[in-house]
Amino acid sequence: MKIIIINTNCSNLSSVKIMLNKLGCNTIITDDPDLIIQSDKILLPGVGTANTAMKQLKKKNLIQLIKKCTQPTLGICLGMQLFGSFSNENTHTNTLNIINVPVKHMYSPTLPIPHMGWNNITILKKHDLLNGINNNHYFYFAHSYCMELNYTTIAYTNYGQPFSSVIVYKNFFGVQFHPKKSSFSGEQLIKNFLEI
Question: Is 77 labeled as catalytic in the residue annotation?
Answer without folding.
Answer: yes
